[in-house]
Structures are given as structure tokens and as C-alpha cells.
Amino acid sequence: MNKENLLEILDSLNDGFYITDAKGNTVWMSQASCEMLKKTREELIGQNVWDLEKQGLFSPSVNRLVLQKNESISIIQTIKGYHQKFLVSGHIVRDERGGIKWVVTHAGSINRDLLSTTQHAEVEAVLNRYVQELRNLQTKNETIDGTNPLIGETPHFKKLIGQAEKIAVSDASVLITGETGCGKNVFANYIHKLSERHDKPFIQVNCGAIPESLFESELFGYKKGAFTGASGKGKIGLVEVAEGGTLFLDEIGELPLHLQVKILQLIQDKTYLPIGEVYLHSANVRIIAATNKDLLKLSEENKFRADLFYRLNVLSMKVPALRERPEDIFLLLRHYVDVYNKKYKMNKTLSREAITVLQSYSWPGNIRELSNTVERALIMSDHDQIEADELPDNIQEYKGSSFTVQHNQDVNKPLRKYLDEIEKDFIQHKLQEAKTTREAAKLLGIPQSTLMRKIQKYGINDHLQKL
């Protein structure tokens, strides 16, 4: 759903919706709000709610109170020209830095008196749903992570983004799996930004990077004098730092068994025990974990606690490797060329042959490797156009491929069609190299079943006889 669709939906409802910016300036209101206030959009857009309140149009201004308190509120409001009062709720939509971007208020329709408790709950549910949708639209237009964005046009990748948006609404634990460098941390951050915890901390802990002897004190903290060498002031752990927000446990499969039970307690009971303390501390955090390992297999081998695996795996998502979505490589290359051109104040491009070689490479390091490769190429090249022979040696091995892109000349061609034609040609090229579709799928880095679906999609019938 885009912004225009959402506003059309709000405009069709009998309830009033009123949106201001962070300074209280009116940016949009639904038709029901116009009727309620007996004003047109042209009269209201641009007007500040402080001024409208002084004019007696409504009292008090919910948007003003939300901005002053910096929190969502519900109050009883009087509107000029009506004897009955209205229950009005105001919610905040925050920007990527946690500041206020919009205030969205909701009021009952013009023929609705003071709402009952049940009706109030229904109104709150409706408003929360639309505020969440506004947050989704805003987050999609922001850069989640400048060095590892959520960029992809494949149906599976789009489905995965939709899955993340559904997961964000819940507060259950999440397990994200996928190879190193494929963007698990970016999806974790995306889920956090779309959740009700978006204005609270997002704390990432790499379970494989912290020494085992320090992990417990780093995560849970310690009381002063808890052990020899401990700080005289004690230490706040990362769980406490993440209070109210999200704790992202990256590479959870690296966590030693004796520490896994403490994470299980944190998830199960929402409590933890700092070193040297005798009383449990409560924790209001959402747990998102990620791993490039098969935790179920590890649990069967008694290398990972089965009870922790099932606690983590309430909601799960698998991020695909880059070789499983080759049609997205061009989009990512274009993105990173732009990113590093801006970073280093350059204006370099990749040659057609360089793009072909990069699209042919299997990217075992996934998006992280692609990003590093583009950055290195831009820095090291002495030319405005980077050629294939300036790429790393392991990638240049693909330079001898006879596959070439034949569709670059038509600049008016839709991107989807352009990418489909590249993918079709690339698959045909690999099918010519291989003796069987199984071997071709291996060369492409995709499952054979996926290759067969693409062969059928593109009508590459002359290769269907290969087994």
C-alpha cells in the first residue's frame, strides 16, 4: 500500500483523522474532520494547531498536547459548534532518529457522542493500525542501513519484507537465519523500526565477538565489587541499556551452553541476575536472534539447548543468499556505486563488462562482499569507468565467460523486463555450459527446482530434456 492509497482509505471513513508535523502545522485531514470542524482542507492545511486552538476551533488541541508531552494521549475534546464532547486520541509517528515526524489524531464521527469503553478500544485499534501503516510507509522510504539496505525485486525477497512487517506488529521472539553477510542484522533493525518499540534502543550483541569470560558481565552487568578487578561503580549490562527496546543477539549459535540457560531465563521469565546481585532484575526487551548455523541440528547434537531454540523460534524468517536472487545484483551494484561515490566525492561508473562479470560471480560473502568489492574498486581504480580487469582476481575468473548483456541499449525498457531478459540470457548461458539442469543449478547457485520453474517461466524448452 502506498501513501496515496492509505489517505484514500482514511478519507473514506466516518471518523476524523488529523495529521500535523513536528511543529504543529496541519499537513492533512480526512473529509470527516473537515465536516466536523466546518472547514475545508484549503483553509486548514498549513495552519498551526496552537493558532486554531486560540481561535476556539477545538479545546484543547490534542496535537499540541502530544507534542508537549512527547507521548501518545487520549482526551475529551470540545469542538466549536457542538454540545457533545468527543474522545480524541493522538499518536506519534517518529523519524529514523527517534524524533517526532507526524502526530496523527483520531476523533469520533460528528454524530457520535462520548464513546463507551468498548467503542474506545475499537477506535484505538483502528488508529493503531493506521499509525502502523504510516510507520511502514515511512520506514520503507528511509535507508535502513546505508551499507546494507533492503533492496530487492524478486518475489521471494518482497514476500520476506512483508513477513518482517507482520512480525513487527507482534512482540514475540524472532529467529533470523541465513548465510554470513546476507543482511540478517538489517532485517532485525527493520523489524525494530516498524515495531511499537521503534523509539526505544536497538542494541546489537555479537555473541561470537565477546570473549566467553566477559559475556555475562557485558550482557547482564555486575554489582560494584562483585569480583576482583570489577569497577567500583559497578556496570550496567546491555540488557538494561536495551530496556523498552530490542535486544538483537547476532550469531546466537556461538553462545556457550552454560550461558544459553541465562538467555533462556531472560526470554522465558523476562528476568536476569547481574553478577554479584541476589535479587532478579526485570527486563522489558524484545529478543531477536540471528544465526548462520542450523540450530535444530546443533540441538540434536547437544551443542545448543533445544528449549532455547524453541523459545527463540516463535517467529522465524530465512534471508536468502545473494546467489539465490541474481536479478537483484544489478540493483545492489547501482546502489553501492551511488553510496561510495557520495562517500568519497567521486563520479565513477562500472563498465558493461565489469557489470557482466559481477553478475556472473556467485558472491559467497553475499551483500557484505558485494559492498566491499564495489568500495575497493572505486577507491583503487584510476579511471572514471571501472573495467573488469580492475576487479579482484577471484572475481576476474568470470571474465572469460561468453555471456554478455544484450539489453542495455533500450533505456526506455521497464526495469522488470530488463532484469527478466538478463536472467533469461544468463540461465541459457549456464544451461549451455552444463550437461544437466542439476549441474546448471549448481553453477547458478540456486536449487534445481527453482531453475526448472525459471526454465518454464522463460519458455526455455530446448533444455527441458536435460535431467
Summed up, what is this model?
44% of the residues lie in helices and 15% in strands. The chain is α/β, with parallel strands linked by helices. Strand 1 and strand 2 (26-29) form a beta hairpin.
The strands making up the biggest β-sheet line up spatially as 2-1-6-5-4-3
Note the beta-strand portion: 15-25%
Tell me which CATH architecture of the largest domain applies here. 3-Layer(aba) Sandwich
Low-confidence stretches: 109-120, 143-148, 402-409, 463-467
Q: What's the average pLDDT?
A: 81
The CATH class of the largest domain, by name, is Alpha Beta
Shape by Cα distribution: globular
Helix content: 40-55%
Count of discrete structural domains: 3
Biggest β-sheet: count, sense, barrel? 6 strands, antiparallel
Q: What's the CATH topology name of the largest domain?
A: Rossmann fold
Structural class: alpha/beta
CATH superfamily of the largest domain, by name, is P-loop containing nucleotide triphosphate hydrolases
* Rg of Cα set: 27 Å
Put simply, the count of helices is 20
Total strand segments: 17
Distance between the termini: 42 Å
Which labels suit this protein?
alpha/beta; Beta-Lactamase; Rossmann fold; Helicase, Ruva Protein, domain 3; 3 domains; six-stranded antiparallel β-sheet; five-stranded parallel β-sheet; 20 helices; 17 strands
Report on this structure.
The protein has 467 residues and is of the alpha/beta class. It folds into three domains: 3-140, PAS domain (Beta-Lactamase, 2-Layer Sandwich); 155-320, 3-Layer(aba) Sandwich (Rossmann fold), CATH 3.40.50.300; 324-463, Helicase, Ruva Protein, domain 3 (Orthogonal Bundle), CATH 1.10.8. The protein has 20 helices and 17 strands. The strands form five sheets. A six-stranded antiparallel beta sheet has the order 2-1-6-5-4-3, sandwiched between helices. A hairpin with a 4-residue loop joins β1 and β2. α11 packs across α13. It is globular.
